[in-house]
Amino acid sequence: MTSASEQIVPQPVDFTERASRPGKVVALHLNYPSRIEQRGRSPKFPGYFIKAGTSIANTGDSIERPAGTELLAYEGEIALIIGETCRRVSPEEGWSKVSGITAANDWGLYDLRHADKGSNVKNKSGDGYTPLGPAVLPAAGLDPKALRVRTWVNGELVQDDTTEGLVFPFGQLVADLSQLMTLEEGDVILTGTPAGSSVAQPGDVVEVEVDAPTAPGAPSTGRLVTRVVAGEHEMAPYGAQPQVDDTQREEAWGSREAAGLSAAPEKANDDGPAPEQVSDHYVPSAPVADRSLLTEELKAKINETAVATITAQLRKQGINNATIDGVRPTHPGRRILGYAKTLRYVPNREDLFKAFGGGFNAQKRAMDSVQQDDVVVMEARGEKGTGTLGDVLALRAQVNGANAVITDGGVRDSEAVAGVGIQVYSNGAHPAVLGRRHVPWEVGGTIACGGTTVQPGDIIIGDDDGVVVVPPALLHEVVEAAYEQEQQDAWVYDRVAEGHPVDGLFPPNAEWKAKYAEYRAQQDGQGTA
After folding, report:
1. Alpha carbons 85 and 319: distance in angstroms, whole number
2. Distance (Å, whole) CA 409 – CA 437
3. Residues at the annotated binding site for Mg(2+)?
4. 3-state per-residue secondary structure call for 101-148
């Protein structure tokens, strides 16, 4: 131990160097009373998860929020650095095995929490998700109950708490973990975050600092700085896809109010847990899009095939109700193709609009979470007496990579929306704002638009005739048949142009089918089919 007057000198460390990188990083779920009260869960014993060593980053490094995700959350924490190999130590001995402390930011992507909740592998172990530093405070001479952790976002203080009242003291954490595993020199234990953890957006700068304000010289780790950037890469289709619901938003933002949600409904009785607490896993209400379906080859065939021909082939498959009726394009002559991203409005009720219409509502969340090649499809019940889209949100969808927006309701600021350039199908223009007839309600559910059912991931194809919804499971079969039909129809058109009568030619009888087969064989032989 140092003397009362001896100052503790911070030691700068580069944790990404092989020699300094921790062998393992163990993180604690809950520890600070402020966070426990916020979460509404009171742990009897410590609960942990492991973070990958490759998640370690230094001060000044950037962290990417993957494309198509929404809830990247920071958690300012105190990190314990184990100073010697130990096994089965007591809580009284635990702190003596700690050589130093530093600042940490336990980043998590709530969009992937459903994938492996509990283990947190995909949620918590991305590259750069565990920045540490910039300096280490030697543990000798520090009072583990007199430390402070603070977090700033863009210069604003958002977390500020001390270790005085921790539920699980640091010595207990070291002792508890050492009962099962050998703790080695350089291992890191993240000790939990206080209240104030929330969501960061691309462009934000998040800083974490740990200090000992009552120790001689008030030593500090300095500020651990992380810059949030927008990632260019979406989640691969062969792994879990981003999924969020209001429960995840509340926990990521820290409260329902911060997330732009209404107050939670009161329970009628205490007979059981709320529905979202029954299972640890979020069950989606609609399938997740297989974003590998639209290959370049398939896109080329679709873009050479009329929507009318695709609709006819769907009918042959027994799918008669596949067109979104009543909508017309803002930009005639331009086709659309993409994966359905769904948004549902419900009829306006003033109390519900007050609760759900403001803040980061479902309409804004839909546009803000658009992925490349999405087509946003809105259920507005065919209500044309108000707008469901304006130029700002149309632009947001376009910037995020959407190919089109479809609404069976109205569009306001129609001239400005047209000027954005993104293709929009709508039921017409109307000057009134959303709240006149609608409450934005749900993103990512199964909806009804223009008289047909649309699920997330359905393939949306549109031209001047209208819009058709193709079930993903039928896409290849329908497109191949429709493309072949299109080639045959083009050949028939040329024969009619040559003067042949349509009787027996349209549709072709056996004689004309044979001639067409001969023509195709010749084209295939020339490599131009």
Report:
1. 66
2. 10
3. 413
4. EEEEECCEEHHHCCCCCCCCHHHHCCCCCEEECCEEEECCCCCCCCCE
In angstroms, the Cα distances linking 225 to 326, 334, 386 are 52, 46, 45
Q: Are 36 and 201 in contact (CB under 8 A)?
A: no
Which residues belong to the annotated binding site? Answer: 390-393, 412-413
Q: Summarize pLDDT for 22-65 with one digit per residue, the tens.
A: 899 999 999 999 998 888 777 888 999 999 999 999 999 999 99
Q: What is the 3-state secondary structure (H, E, C) of 150-209?
A: EEEECCEEEEEEECCCCCCCHHHHHHHHHCCCCECCCCEEECCCCCCCCECCCCCEEEEE
pTM of the full predicted structure?
0.52
Binding site membership for substrate: which residues? 390-393, 412
Can you read off the two tokens belonging to residue 192?
């939990």
Question: Which domains are assigned to the chain?
Answer: 11-253 (3.90.850.10), 296-472 (3.50.30.40), 477-526 (no CATH)
Tokens coding 40: 């509404």
Residue 377 vs residues 70, 369, 385, 435: alpha-carbon distances, Å: 19, 13, 18, 19
- Give me the residues paired with residue 103 across strands: 78
Question: Which segments of 184-295 does DSSP mark as H helices, in order?
Answer: 246-253
| Tokens encoding 126 | 């991305």
pLDDT tens track for 432-454: 988 899 999 999 889 999 999 99
CB atoms within 10 A of CB 41: 12
What residues does 505 pair with on adjacent strands?
508
Q: Which residues have CB under 8 Å from 156's CB, separation 6+?
A: none
